[in-house]
Amino acid sequence: MDGFEAWLAYLFDRPADDDGSWDDRPHEWFDRYARRDTPAATAQRIRELFGNAGALLRHHSDDQVARGVRDITDAGTIGVLSSRQVPVVLRTTAIRSIGTLYAEVFAARIEVETQRNTPKLQDVCFMFFDIAALDLGDDTVLDVLEDIAGLPSVACQRAALHGLGHAHGKAPRAARTIVDRWLARNRGAPRELRDYAAAAARTGEVM
Fold first, then answer.
1. Which one in 7, 78, 94, 171 has a CA-CA gap of 20 to 30 Å to 141?
2. Which of 87, 58, 88, 57 minimizes the C-alpha distance to 72?
3. Phi, psi of 50 (to 5 degrees)
4. This protein's superkingdom (predicted)?
5. Structural domain boundaries of the chain?
6. What is the CA radius of gyration of the chain?
């Protein structure tokens, strides 16, 4: 397999009943490719994966998808999208591909939010912009958050509002403007979600 396929296999083929031994096994990604990796190559893989997430991840379970996406965000991999070693066009198109991930995976798979014993996929959807090492004051990131807030999915809207709440600390005026537009367009949204949005716009206090 090529480097992209090996990377996907390592991240997403982990068995659901893994006892922790997955990382101890030999993986083609590490044996053949990881040592030669660069920030630009990582950004290209993220863009390819997120930009085609619906098709590439269709055979994986929700838990496998959640674990793989969390590894990309939580392990710092996605931080390359803030690196000056990555060309601007590649960086911005990779950031924009996050919107496709939300539309094709999170919105498609999370039909109803679960409040207790939150499923792993719902959790990583909600926490994505909290744990990802992205510049939440970046114009492209803010554009993506607004796009995600516009999806017909309460889970995705809540995730975007959560991200905008955190963005309030870096770009309060921009975050507030985006949330105000969301409130104007979604007058029929659940009251608790509108209250959550208002808190994100006013103070950035989101949980």
1. 7
2. 57
3. -65, -35
4. Bacteria
5. 1-134, 135-207
6. 17
